[in-house]
Here is the input.
Amino acid sequence: MHLHLPHLNYSGPPIDDAPILDRLPPALAAALRERNGSIGWQGVVHLRGACIEPQWHSLRNAAEGSDSFPSLYPALEPTDLAFAEEAFGDQFLLRQGAVIRLLAETGETEPCGESIASWFSALLADPETILGYEPAQALEAVGGKLEPGQLVSAYPPFCIASETVRREFKPVAALSRRGWLAGLAARMRELPDGAEIDIKQP
Here is the structure.
């Protein structure tokens, strides 16, 4: 399997965390040995790599420790591994060989592919179905460009209906966006459907 995303604007550094590859399906591990993660569609899809730095690109950082996704989202299993993310911060995770999507604003999960190979093939063939939007739409929201290590902040969040506030978009540091989304999801878990919530702009 070859993880060749279109319109690359970042390729990962040389591998310096080879042991993390043992947690991946063989096809994905082999692909990362060829190219250690990348960012495609000029910032819209990010495939993490087997490295310690930068932290926003690190599979290890996403999988282990107090800031890992299983630590931040109780619905996840400890062995879930976030190998990729999309522009607004939703995560794609490996769970027992299958791919699930973490809806980062709420912490909910949904199936997204029977295997990494089927998920990647579907992403290339029809990115709008996998992402929920055309890649160009995310870039247009922030003026056409995302730098490596950035995600798109959407305020108010997509999960919150607002009749008075126009949704605004801006590029933000990926790790900052990760923490903000996890905090939002924690608050959302405590609220009944239809409740009002006051969210400060990030």
Notes: The longest strand covers residues 81-86. The chain has a mean pLDDT of 92. The two ends are 38 Å apart (CA to CA). Residues 174-189 form the longest helix (16 residues).
